[in-house]
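User: Sequence recovery, please. Input:
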């Protein structure tokens, strides 16, 4: 009969997210994971598989967190432009920045791992499409409510292009955050990005 686990796998996975997010995939060793999570090496292998499997599970966990936070805000009923502004400003808000000090984990994965790992690339692309769709939903609400100027509310194709622009700006903010860009500069980027909606 299998012995019950002496640790919480969900908590261990959350810790793995933090380790990979902070250090990156290549710079994280199995020893780093074992000591950082606080479990035995064999328990890590038995529960999650190898380092790569744990990394992919960590990306999935992070993506689920984004769905609960960012995407939920963008898709919630109500003001579309306000939702977009809230998301952009939350990325640079000093109260939120500590949790995003390393930028976006999935954007980091796109830069470091996705070019050579198809499964990581699948997660990165899936998340990018999900964020773009959520931005499009917010823009469609904004258009229907008359929040956008007429030149911006020029049909679904125009809104889709605007959603892509906003998604790209969001990724750029997350990279700038990882680079340590000063808050004043980040605010400038957000203000100029939002001017595309006016």
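Assistant: Recovered sequence (198 residues):
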């Amino acid at each position: 009969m299998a012995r019950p686990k002496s640790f919480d796998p969900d908590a261990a996975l959350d810790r793995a997210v933090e380790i990979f997010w902070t250090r990156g995939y290549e710079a994280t060793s199995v020893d780093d994971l074992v000591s950082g999570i606080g479990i035995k090496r064999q328990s890590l292998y038995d529960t999650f598989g190898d380092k790569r499997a744990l990394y992919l599970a960590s990306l999935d966990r992070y993506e689920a967190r984004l769905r609960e936070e960012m995407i939920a805000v963008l898709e919630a009923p109500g003001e579309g432009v306000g939702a977009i502004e809230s998301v952009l400003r939350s990325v640079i808000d000093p109260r939120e920045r500590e949790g995003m000090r390393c930028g976006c984990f999935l954007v980091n994965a796109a830069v470091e791992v996705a070019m050579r790992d198809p499964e990581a690339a699948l997660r990165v692309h899936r998340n990018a499409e999900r964020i773009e769709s959520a931005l499009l939903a917010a823009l469609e609400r904004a258009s229907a409510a008359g929040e956008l100027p007429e030149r911006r509310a020029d049909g679904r194709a125009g809104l889709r292009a605007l959603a892509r622009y906003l998604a790209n700006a969001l990724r750029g903010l997350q990279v700038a955050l990882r680079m340590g860009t000063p808050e004043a500069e980040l605010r400038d980027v957000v203000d100029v990005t939002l001017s595309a909606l006016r």
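Residues 118-144 form the longest helix (27 residues).
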